[in-house]
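Reopening this ticket.

The earlier resolution said the output was attached, but the attachment link was broken on my side. Pasting everything inline this time so it's all in one place.
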Amino acid sequence: MKAVNHYVVVDKIKEAEKKVGGLLITESTDTENRYLKGKVISVGNLVEGVEVGDVVNYDKHAGHGITHKDKFYFVIRVGDIVLVD
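Inline output:
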């Protein structure tokens, strides 16, 4: 699988659940964190500054999901990436 143009394929990294004041905060209830973390699987030919294997933070409302070889990935635009670890 190869991304094209300004697209990046990421494998979402599952964040650990945390407790705040005795309440369990999961990804779906965490309204203060706008970004998700993912590992870059493929980058398009027009993408600069992001490489395969990088861990990135991206807008959780960006892109769409795709299944490839029985694994679920997200396809996002490079502009939706805000941090590269």
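Reporter confirms the inline version is readable. The radius of gyration is 14 Å. The chain has a mean pLDDT of 90.
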